[in-house]
Structures are given as C-alpha cells and as structure tokens.
Amino acid sequence: MSQPINLGPRSWLSYRGGSGYLLWALHRVTGLGLLLFLALHIVDIFLLAFGPAAFEHLLVLYTSPPGRLMEIFLLFGVLFHAVNGLRIIVQDLFTKSWERQRHDRLIVVQLVVFLLIFLPAAWIMFGSFLESLS
Amino acid sequence: MRVLFKVYRYQPETREDAYFDSFEFDAEPTDRVLDGLNHIKWHLDGTLTLRRSCQHGICGSDALRINGVNRLACKVLIGDVGSKIKIEPLMGFTVIKDLVVDMDRFFSHYRSVMPYFVNDEAPPDRERLQSVEARDAYDDTTKCILCAACTTSCPSAWSNPDFIGPAAIVQAHRFIFDDRDEGSEERLAALGQRDGVWRCRTVFNCTRACPKEIQITKAIGEVKKAIVADRS
User: Fold this and answer.
1) ipTM associated with this complex
2) Inside any domain, residue A105
C-alpha cells in the first residue's frame, strides 16, 4: 500500500522556498483578507436597507480601537497586493526580468516602494488608533 | 565533523505509517549528502531505500528534499548544509518506499510535450546546420536532467496533479525554440491548455531548486509569450 505524502498545510509551510515563495504566499493571504473585507463592506452597505440607525450602528465598529487597528491591516493588505500585482505585471511584460538575479532586484524595488507608502500612512493611522483609545 | 541525519522512512511491509529515523556518525565537510546516505545504507541500516545512479549530477535520480529544499544529494556538500541534515522524498508524489517516489505522472507529463525532434523533411546529406545565435535561443534548457526537483518544488504542481509542471515546460522549450524543429505548433497547443503554462504563478521555487541552474521561470515566460504570439 502506497501513500500520498507531503500535501498538507504543514509541508507547504515547511518548504524552504525563496523570497518569491514568500511573496506568493502573502499575495494569496492578502487576497483572501481583501475578499473578507469586501464581504464585510457589502454587508455594511446593505444595512442601509434597514434604515440609517442600523447602518450607523455598524459604522461605530470602524471608529472603535479594534476597527482602527483593522484599518492598518487593511492598508497593508491592499498596498501589498497592489504593489506585488504590479511587479508581476511588469515581469509578464519584460521576459528578461524572469532571470533570477533581475527578479531578486525587482523584489527589492517592490519592497522599497511598499515601505515608502506604507510606513508614513501606517504611522498616521496608528495616531488615529491612539486617539480612539482616549 | 559529527553529523546527524534525520531520514524519512516508509516501509510498507513492516509498518503502515511513515516516520523519521536518526543516524549519527562522523563525516567530512567535503563529503556529499549522498555519501552520508550511502554510509547509512552500507554500514548502519541496509533497509534504507533510495535512488541513485551516476552519483555525479548527470542522471538526476537522487533529487531529494534536503533540509526543506529540493536538491541533488550527489551535488550538495555536507559542510554546506550543516551538521543536522533532514532528508525527505520529493513533495507531491506518492512514496513507494523510504525516499523512492512514484514518478509515473511526472514522465507522462514529460511525454505529453513531445520531447523529441520533429522534422518530416528528408534528411540532408550532412548535419542540419544551425547558427550560434539560433542555438543560443534554447541553450539553457538543454541542461535539464529530469530530476524533478523543479516540478516538486512548485506549489501549483502540489495543488494540481494535472499541471504539466516546470520540467515538462523546460523540455518543450528546448524543442520549441530549436529552429530546425517543426513540432512547435502542437507543443504550444498542448502547453496553452488550462493545465499548461498558465498555472505558473511566478513563484521561482523551480529556478532556485534546479541543480543545473536553468532559468526555468524565464523559460516558462518565453513559452507563454510564444503561445500569445502564436494565437495573435
């Protein structure tokens, strides 16, 4: 009797791929996160059908401390997914960038762009989070 | 140096589940991982089952997952991987025994891209001449030794057994970009299918795993472009 192996989530996590593997995994995770947020967003808009009170009741969630914190994660998800997606489009258009060394350089550029936008924005949003605590 | 080999074992005749066996012994840092596995088989436990043939990085039969990443056991030095070495069979294939996996599916994908020269013209009196530039177009992909390190490092191949896999695409690339070959249309049609090249997600695990340092993701990209050009 033979057995299939190494196909569970544990072995996926245990494979020591490089930066491309990590970015691919993050792209999937942030994609799922965005899908969840989209579902939440559709639900909160739908609540308008039950009148302004119900809608505003849910809006309080977004201004609460956990809501503010979630927004920082949301920014991370949207920004990472967008920048990584743009990098993949660039690679699709320019075959030379599929060489490993160029790919590695492109990832550095991608991370710099991501951090340049994310860090200041997250800092400002963290201020809002601290304000919501007081 | 003292080394500890942690080796994946699956012996269906004696035990139903898979487990890890540990072996500790002295080795030189310049010994290859395969030397360590041979030492285990020849001196410590003769039941250890693994594939190896040429032992010089040409036959491609001893690709294994070494410390979490696909490598050829005969090309990796023990000194380069450290004193604790975890050996597992290639991911995504059915294990037959210990480190030996069933590669039938791998070779059926390989055969599906017609990995041979196609040209129905009458053979010339001498060899079919080719320019240096034309040869360069597919030089990289001639190096493939069919070890399956790339295909079994690919998340798309793990999740979808029907995905043709990087190795078959590399083999197809070798003939698609050979200007003497005339079978490209059929190959591109096969690779343009749902489970062909488009399952590649640019993860680069294959390029990193290749023991012959073939730019696999680049080759896949070139085939993708050729398919698009062929359709337009």
Assistant:
1) 0.83
2) yes
